[in-house]
Write a structure and sequence with these properties.
The protein has 428 residues and is of the alpha/beta class. It has helices spanning 3-11, 18-30, 35-48, 52-63, 91-101, 120-124, 136-145, 159-169, 177-189, 211-227, 250-263, 266-282, 289-301, 304-315, 345-354, 395-408; strands spanning 79-83, 106-109, 148-151, 195-202, 231-238, 246-248, 329-333, 338-343, 371-374, 381-382, 387-392, 409-412, 422-427. The longest helix has 17 residues, at 211-227. Bound molecules: uracil.
């Protein structure tokens, strides 16, 4: 069938057959279907949605677009965590080595920044020499010998997502439940996992703005994991303000290292240990959530998590001893006295894009030295002129970024009562 016929069918709200979806994805990967045709179908899917059968077919087509990781033995259990995307979300950098310290193996295939949200690979590339383009053999070797690896998909692992992810980023087609489900689950299923935990974010800095949408996405992701025989749990976590203090690339690596030295902010450590505990319990490495959290915290306190992170970075060609440049800091003062009533978190992500810490179009080179440090949280009382944040930016871009920052932090008389950080848990 012609690509235009398939695009038109979805545009007109028709149901695509598994064969049509497979043909389209295969055509896109082989180059027979152009970026602009894939962009049109992505937009039609974004606007019209997909039912569960179509979403399953899309996930399978993407998964089967390349090879998959296989393991000689299911032991130690292969596990991973994936986030649907947020700001300041550096949990992967801390969690992968932590899980390896607990005796699990983590073949983590991560992505780049998407929309206003940051990407694990971009952050790690702020470490001089760090390679995110490991081969299948290298991924297998490091998983089995170091215990964890964080890299991108190889050209032959889920090539469909590699192309489609970059295209969606620049065509405003990210926040779609079927597209996110297929993107995340095709990558995760290709890892040959025993258990998977998902951090599904909701709020002003997430693709899913409402809790209801996030819950629907979590159900779709968990159902896909179940269908494919992978124990899958999703936590719904708040993204109405950045996680931790730093947003950017080099600055988030610095904050992750501080967290592994025992200096992590409460919210960052809470989400990281809650996600890790799910995997320890699911694989029988811990008898209870409490036991799991104690193990994870013990590996931070002993320095084992940081040592494992260093081992992974070195194995991937990186050097933590070399400087990771951070642009000069500019303070953003509060325009008035009051209470931080809300933070427009998406605007913070857009400010980082303006600072070239994220992409405007496919292939943009990033300035990994830029970013933001939040000095206040929702509910904090502030004085007139009190610093709300620091912007790390070259002087030429700093003024505009500080202006955006100031507009993104709302100062009012009072804040709404805070939601818990982890609002719900969805399991199969
Ligand atoms: N993370 C992914 O890997 N894919 C998406 O579509 C969104 C978040």
């Amino acid at each position: 069938m012609l690509p235009t016929t398939i695009i038109a069918k979805k545009r007109d709200n028709g149901e695509l057959s598994p064969q049509e979806i497979t043909d389209f994805i295969n055509g896109y990967v082989s180059g027979d279907i152009a970026d602009y045709q894939m962009a049109a179908l992505a937009m039609a899917i974004y606007l019209r949605g997909m039912n569960a059968t179509e979403t399953a077919a899309l996930t399978d087509a993407m998964l089967n677009s390349g090879v998959q990781l296989t393991w000689e033995s299911p032991f130690p259990a292969k596990v991973d965590k994936h986030s649907t995307g947020g700001l300041g979300d550096k949990t992967s950098l801390i969690l992968a080595p932590l899980l390896a310290c607990c005796g699990l193996q983590v073949p983590m295939l991560s992505g780049r920044g998407l929309g206003a949200t940051g990407g694990t690979l971009d952050k790690l590339e702020a470490i001089p020499g760090y390679r995110t383009d490991l081969s299948l053999e290298e991924i297998r070797h490091l998983t089995e010998n170091v215990g964890c690896v964080i890299t991108g998909t190889t050209p032959n692992l889920v090539p469909a997502d590699r192309k489609l992810y970059a295209l969606r980023d620049v065509t405003a087609t990210v926040p779609s439940i079927p597209l996110i489900t297929a993107s995340i689950m095709s990558k995760k299923l290709a890892e040959g996992l025993t258990a998977l935990v998902l951090d599904v974010k909701f709020g002003s800095g997430a693709f899913m703005k409402t809790l209801d949408d996030a819950r629907a996405l979590a159900r779709s992701l968990v159902a896909t994991g179940k269908r494919m025989g992978v124990t899958t749990v999703a936590l719904l976590t708040d993204m109405n303000q950045p996680l931790g203090r730093m947003v950017g690339n080099a600055v988030e690596v610095d904050e992750s290292i501080a967290a592994m030295q025992g200096e992590g902010s409460g919210d960052l450590i809470d989400v990281t240990t809650a996600l890790g505990a799910e995997l320890l319990v699911a694989t029988g490495k811990a008898a209870s959530q409490g036991d799991a959290r104690a193990q994870l915290q013990g590996h931070i306190a002993s320095g084992a998590a940081l040592a494992k992170f260093e081992e992974m970075v070195t194995a991937q060609g990186g050097n933590l001893a070399l400087p990771r440049p951070v642009a000069s800091a500019h303070e953003v003062g509060s325009p008035s006295q009051g209470v931080v009533s809300a933070i427009d978190t998406e605007q913070l992500g857009l400010a980082v894009i303006e600072l070239r810490g994220g992409r405007r179009k496919m292939g943009d080179q990033l300035d990994l030295s830029t970013g933001i440090e939040m000095l206040v949280r929702v509910g904090d009382r502030v004085e007139d002129g009190q610093p709300l944040a620091r912007v790390f930016a070259p002087s030429a871009l700093a003024e505009e970024a500080c202006r955006r920052m100031q507009a993104a932090v709302r100062i009012g008389d009072q804040a709404a009562p805070p939601l818990p950080l982890i609002v719900d848990r969805i399991s199969s």
